[in-house]
Amino acid sequence: MNKNIFLIFCFLAGIGFLAVNVFKPVRKLSVNSTDFVGKPGLHPIAINTSSYSLAGTQVASDLKLAAIPRLEKSVEPTEIVQVITNVSPFSDEPGTNDPSALLRKLRDWAAKDAEGALAAAMQLPSGDERNQALAAVCYGLAETDPADAVNLAQTLNMGEQPGAIMPNLVQQWATTDFQSAFDWVNNQAASEERNDLTTRIAYVLSQTQPADAAGLVMDQIPPGSTQDEAVMTVLNQWGNQNLIAATDWVKQFPDGPLRERAVRELEGIAAYEQLLAAQ
After folding, report:
1. CA-CA distance, 185 to 221, in Å (whole number)?
2. d(CA 174, CA 132)
3. What is the average per-residue pLDDT within 186-209?
4. Which of 144, 181, 195, 254 has the most neighbouring CB atoms within 10 Å?
5. What is the helix (H) or strand (E) element at residue 175, kind and residue range?
6. What's the pLDDT score for residue 30?
7. Could you read off the pLDDT of 104-134 as tens digits, one per residue?
8. C-alpha dihedral sign at 169, 171, 175, 181
9. CA torsion 216→219→225→226, rounded to 10°?
10. What's the whole-model pTM score?
């Protein structure tokens, strides 16, 4: 009798154990999809770049963005647009987030998925906010492909925006592939913008070959204020590398404000070198 009771007890206990484990409710996980926009592990957003426009200019569909490293999971453009448009000064709600930090986040996203970041930026309304976002995308793309970044910025007419965006991108390109950047600048139509770009190219070249950079600014930039500033930029680099050679260059300058300014620059470099030698 006791044996039968024990068996019945064991049978009932087993049924209870199965009921508890089989029919136990599943715990739901909560994920905040807006955290860490652009972090590693996100899929790219497939877009047709030719469907977006800025100031009446279509974004070229052959921007060679296919080679950009892709993220494994996508962040919907509406997510980052929602974040951007809800941040001061892009909205009336003060202090929600730091716009500079948001632009850095967009730049980081563009370094990993340029097409997705571009899609998000292009959804912003025309104006300063979208221009800032597009600049951030170009700078992010320049971290992986500065040539494509320059071409994208030119397509978006970023040269017309404040902040020397095109010169900065060209300078970054020249630091990684000088010849390609030089050829691209040399093929641009003569303009003040091209003179500014040539100044940046000359600055990069002056860090290793200042004599060649000196010839570049004298040959490629017409006389005027832009050429004067380019000369001073090269002279500073040359004087700090080889004061005697830089002095010989300045001796060839005709009398005038530029020569006087160059002499003062060299005197300042010489005085600094003497100070360091005396320590």
Report:
1. 12
2. 23
3. 96
4. 181
5. helix 165-176
6. 26
7. 889 999 999 999 899 988 888 888 888 999 9
8. positive
9. -40
10. 0.66
